[in-house]
Amino acid sequence: MDQTLYPCPCCGYHTLTAPPPETYSICPICCWEDDGDIQRLFGDRISQSNQVSLRQAQRNFMEFGACEPEWLDWVRSPTPEDFRDPNWQPLDIIIEQRRIALISKITLAFQNTELKGGITIHQARALDDYEDPEQARQIDAHLPWQEIPDKWLENFSDVFAFMDGKGFRYYIPAYMIWCLKYQQFESNSYWSTIDYLKKPHHDHFDFFSDEQITAIAEFIELIDIT
């Protein structure tokens, strides 16, 4: 009777004799040890047994055929008898699919959001710089959040603290989508968007719908694993 085998989290081939995680088996095809010490689904943390994260191990396997370079002499190539799980996908692909889907979800959740007298991006900057906020408001109050230029989003990283709840609700989807589209990890706007969304002490979220709160929660979760 054929033995039932289960997919390796790294390469996807059915080589494990028990369902993962925490089988502590070593896959003969990629040499990943299934110790179960991965960060939730996405495996961005280096485990106790493996010297790279699951995500990096998958990249290594696709590049040179082993989860880590030191195991190149230990791995074997898949044979015609080896079966790769049809539902298996690299974590990079899974995360990319989530990123694209989340952009659509944010767009839908905030599509009918109106500024309603809230503080605009340029108005917030003017308040910070002790300039005329009403004059600054004329620059952008007429623009739908979907049409905010990327250059503004990149350069106006310090405005959240000067916005009211209505302004924050109006502009935050533009900032989130900008973060997801361009992933400029070195940008101040990227990190200020994330930091401000994680702040528990302001009441701006009182203006958000449940659908919008859900989209923000998914944004934070995805950002934390990318």
Q: What is the global morphology?
A: elongated
Q: What is the total domain count? A: 2
Provide the gyration radius in Å.
23 Å
- Number of helices in the DSSP assignment: 8
- Runs in which pLDDT lies below 50 for 5 or more consecutive residues are none
- Classify the helix fraction into a percent range: 40-55%
Strand order of the largest sheet: 1-2
Largest sheet: 2 strands, antiparallel
Average predicted confidence as pLDDT:
91
List the helices and strands and how they pair.
Layout: E1 6-7, E2 14-16, H1 54-64, H2 91-109, H3 121-128, H4 133-140, H5 150-155, H6 165-182, H7 188-198, H8 210-224
Antiparallel strand pairs: 1-2
Helix pairs in contact: 2-6, 2-8, 3-4, 6-7
Describe this structure in words.
The chain has helices spanning 54-64, 91-109, 121-128, 133-140, 150-155, 165-182, 188-198, 210-224; strands at residues 6-7, 14-16. By secondary structure, the protein is mainly alpha-helical. It folds into two domains: 1-88, no CATH class; 94-224, no CATH class. Strands 1-2 form a two-stranded antiparallel sheet. α2 packs antiparallel against α6, α3 (121-128) runs antiparallel to α4 (133-140) and α6 packs across α7. The protein starts with 5 loop residues before the first strand and ends with a helix. Pfam families: Cys_rich_CPCC, DUF6714. This is DUF6714 family protein. Residues 6-81 form the Cysteine-rich CPCC domain.
